[in-house]
Amino acid sequence: MDDLWRRIGELLGSRGIRLKPPARTASSGERVVVLRRGRARQTFRVLNGPALTFSDVARAPSSELPTLFATTYVSRRTAQALRKAGIQYIDAAGNAWIDFADLLLDVQGRPRDEVPVARVPSTENLFSAGRSKVVMALLAWPQLWEAPRRDVASAAGVSLGTAQATMALLDEAGYGPGRSPGAARALLDLWSAAFPSGLARRLAFAEYRGGIEHPRPVDTGQRMFRSGESAVPDLLRPVRLTLYVDDLDPMLPVTNRWRSDGPPNITVRRAFWRPPAGLEEAAGVDDPPVAPWPLVYADLMATDDPRVHAAAQEWRQRSAGPDPSP
């Protein structure tokens, strides 16, 4: 057993959890680990390495087994994305989220400096801000897979080089056109899990509190889009407003009588995309159009409210169709 698994075995052992080290299954060749506590037992497909990132999950083949992500250190941002994606994890510093049978191990906030981090060559982050924009555009408008790369770059609001590199990485990871029917669903799940701590933060303009019905742009030429709860009033009663605009006009909160003090219920972010030709949104003043459906889904999934998650699943099936049959 290498140093990483020895350390993880010690950490689990201190909690009364026994670890059977990684081994390859004879049937599928997957690397698996087995965790036991009392009579409870769970087999995991394991992703492990000294410096894994969330992008490594996207590159891993699909599996019928639950995934255990094991590495030297899991940052708060990576932990948040893993939890959103339902992927269990443990690191050599002692941070962990493991949940099976009657066992729940949830440890957060252990610092990196408790354990040395191995130096390894960096890998490309599939969910960096620029690449996340490209993924969103491809999910929203799948026809872009076959379009000129300049059209992809224009739709995603990125450079041509970023569009080309992202599509090459996605194709290499198995998400290109003609792949398994569930590839797009898997990509959506991983992208939306990374969204709150990644792209959403980069797009943030401001937060306010105030009325959330019928937001108005400062002038009719300003693009404005509803997302999250405010985009699906037929599925739930919205209590938050999420808006995407091209630029934050200082008169926007004045026009809508929003305030910057108190707990916010309004989030304003940058609208980075441009729909492909023929798919432009209709302009609206009293009732802004809805943002691209993957953004609405990601904003709904960013909350911890089960009611909103249920609406997100219905919205996804309405927008992308039912899940493919196994």
Structural description of this entry:
The protein has 326 residues and is of the alpha/beta class. The chain has two domains: 3-114, Trna Endonuclease, Chain: A, domain 1 (3-Layer(aba) Sandwich), CATH 3.40.1350; 128-326, no CATH class. Helix content is 32%, strand content 19%. The protein contains eleven helices and eleven strands. The strands form two sheets. Strands 1-2-3-4-5-6-7 form a seven-stranded mixed beta sheet, sandwiched between helices. A four-stranded mixed beta sheet has the order 8-11-10-9. Helix 4 (129-140) packs across helix 6. The radius of gyration is 22 Å and the shape is globular.
List the helices and strands and how they pair.
Layout: H1 3-13, E1 18-24, E2 31-37, E3 40-49, H2 54-59, E4 67-71, H3 76-84, E5 88-91, E6 96-100, E7 103-107, H4 129-140, H5 149-156, H6 160-172, H7 183-194, H8 199-203, E8 204-208, E9 224-227, E10 241-245, H9 252-256, E11 266-270, H10 293-301, H11 306-320
Helix pairs in contact: 3-7, 4-5, 4-6, 4-7, 5-6, 7-10, 10-11
Pattern of helices and strands: HEEEHEHEEEHHHHHEEEHEHH
Strand content: 15-25%
Number of helices: 11
Helix content: 25-40%
Q: Name the overall outline.
A: globular
Radius of gyration: 22 Å
What is the total number of structural domains?
Answer: 2
**Helix and strand composition category:** alpha/beta
Note the main attributes of this structure.
single chain, 326 residues, alpha/beta, Trna Endonuclease, Chain: A, domain 1, seven-stranded mixed sheet, four-stranded mixed sheet, 11 helices, 32% helix
